[in-house]
Write a structure and sequence with these properties.
The chain is an alpha+beta fold. It contains 7 helices and 16 strands. Its EC number is 4.2.1.1.
Amino acid sequence: MQFMITTFLSICFLFICLASTGADEAEVGFNYVPGSDIGPDRWGVINENWTTCGTGREQSPIDITEERIQEQPDLGRLLQKYQPAKATLKNQHIYLEVEWNGNAGSIIINGFTYNVSQFHWHSPSEHTINGQRYDLEMHIVHQNIVNEIAVIGVLYAYGPPDPFIAKLEPFIRNANNVEEQPIGVVDPREAQGVNTTKYYRYMGSLTVPPCTEGVFWTVLDNVRTVSIEQVNLMKQALPEEFRNNSRPLQNINVRTIGLHQNLKIRK
């Protein structure tokens, strides 16, 4: 119960920090600039509510390395019950965020239902796989009734434009002028993509202050493509100090990484 209360208060604090769509670096209280007084290596000491950023043992993001991966068939396929719902694009200044206004469905992890609430982008990717960093990462954020969080990470490499992001481009172009704009109906299945037969699962944290732990991370192995122009368009909507908005890799410590993959049986 104490963990749930602590998690709830930490999450509330995070949402208060990001609630002001007019927030600049001073109001947010942190940035991603290496060596800055409020840069990533200082997050755990610049605010008494963010100490977990420096002292936590299950922090995110991480490098998903072969030696820490354990195949776990019991993880099963991702159980998803997504549906289209109206959404809003918000310029949170640390990233661009699409928030669903209605019921866009849920995923099920360990028998618990997590409702999808929003997704946002980090560039370059926050997670790496065997040391390889990608050009963009989408985080699809879910929450259950006791405010525990589950996030799906989708990785992108430069290549042909992403069709889903292309649909959002008119609104992204306007994000410099309008900090919150309705964008119509958005389907979470399009955001995530259809190939979820292989994914990695580990316990981690939020990747922005207050770095709350106890987050179920699911990082999809299927890497999508995105154009340089699409990524630059998103970056141009953000203040300069947030255009490279990836937290440095964190120590894995004693954690293992679960792997689920559907393999065809050779006859």
